[in-house]
Amino acid sequence: MVMEGLGDSLRSTLKKLANAGHIDAALIKEVARDIQRALISADMNVRQVLALSKVIEKRALEEKPLAGMSNREHVIQIVHDELVKILGAPRQIPLKKQTIMMVGLYGQGKTTTTGKLALHFKKKGMRVAVIAADVHRPAAHDQLKQLADKVQVGFYGEKGETDAAGIVTRGLAELKKKTDIVIVDTAGRDKLEDSLIEEMKQIFTAAKPDEKFLVMDAAVGQQAESQAKAFHDAVQVTGVIITKLDGTAKGGGALSAVAATQAPVVFIGTGEHVDELEALDPKRFIGRLLGMGDLEALLEKAKAATEGTDADKMARKMLSGRFTLDDMRQQMDMVAKMGPLGKVASMLPGQMGQMLQGRDMEGTQVKMRTYRVILDSMTPQEREEPNLIKAPRIGRIARGSGRTTNEVRELLKYYETTKGMMKGFGSNRKLQRQMMRGMPGQRGGGMAGGR
Ligand SMILES: Nc1nc2c(ncn2[C@@H]2O[C@H](COP(=O)(O)OP(=O)(O)O)[C@@H](O)[C@H]2O)c(=O)[nH]1
Ligand SMILES: [Mg+2]
Prior knowledge:
Blueprint: H1 4-19, H2 25-41, H3 46-62, H4 71-87, E1 98-103, H5 110-123, E2 128-133, H6 140-151, E3 154-156, H7 164-175, E4 181-186, H8 194-207, E5 211-217, H9 224-235, E6 239-243, H10 252-261, E7 265-269, E8 277-279, H11 282-289, H12 295-299, H13 301-304, H14 309-320, H15 325-338, H16 341-347, H17 350-356, H18 361-376, H19 380-384, H20 391-401, H21 405-426, H22 429-438
Parallel strand pairs: 1-4, 1-5, 2-3, 2-4, 5-6, 6-7
Antiparallel strand pairs: 7-8
Helix pairs in contact: 1-2, 2-3, 3-4, 4-11, 5-6, 7-8, 8-9, 9-10, 14-15, 15-18, 16-17, 18-20, 20-21
The structure holds guanosine-5'-diphosphate and magnesium ion.
């Protein structure tokens, strides 16, 4: 698992959230603080962490959950969203004729990743070649040559030459005609030095690269941000590649680098072998980190609440004009499953939605709970045949449910109104069709039997 430490602490924070009885401002603050701690101890830049946790806290406190989502799911989703944002909008590197320049400090994985990228593009059917423009380490030329041979792509290098930009110019001239993608591997330094930045600028001018990839070891610490900025100023980084995510690295520094360049993470390296490179899908990556591979499923919940046999049966009932108190109870359960009523109303099509919108939804929700209790105090027969319910029974039901007789009468009145509405609905084909289309998660043809 990549970024194990960070993942562990983020997951335990989310677990705390998931197990909490009640989500309130204090808990949200605590969660935001936990996330701060997790990211800072993973070496993410402190200023960035503070900004991030502030956004998470603000959104969690101010935004209302979407339909079908509980408060806790909503907060988890916000944490997920904001972390995904750091990784940048997903970006696929186009399969076109282009030059790619690799930059980064010594030992970050530039040369290895150059080989991996070459293989990646070759597998996609591109003609690929690499240029060895690291003139600082004697072995660099041979290292890249071996990699190129291994993955069987073109290679250009001039062993012993010390002018990197010259190599690039001549290499491109030779390779351009017979190659789609040329990847230029460059030298690093132990640390950020003026001579390195100068050399990058020269290579940049010679190569006129389309893509400039900053290669960063996941283990890079707090200095990641300044490094990333320096490279970004020199060559305008278009993508970040985080390597060695298979190790025990904390990874936060790499996240800082990404935030600093505003360039998305495009690939991650997950091992020493040439095929251990993954195109990065920020959502999936963060989902994995937070241990919620099924987040997507969570988000589908609103839809699912209306799907399946219950909704089908209900729809058919509604259209047949037969509508009992049991049906009403079921309907109320269904709506309750979908979440806050205001949102549900806004999802309903046409007249149905308009009718509900603008009403006092909080009040309605409270009412619904009261009705539920009253309905539970009725006998099954009463719910099946509501016209049985006259004065003596009303008294009994009220006592049984701990509500007043007025409330029981109110429920019966509500039932009659709803029934009337359902009947009207049943004879209105246009509304029916509208409803079928608009019902969230309603499968096409699910109501065919009602016609
Ligand atoms: N485990 C692991 N090792 C990697 C990865 N990428 C590179 N390395 C190793 O990191 C070391 C330095 O890589 P190299 O490509 O020479 O770095 P450069 O100096 O930036 O060109 C080598 O031993 C590589 O095998 C990776 O994704 N995972
Ligand atoms: Mg190298």
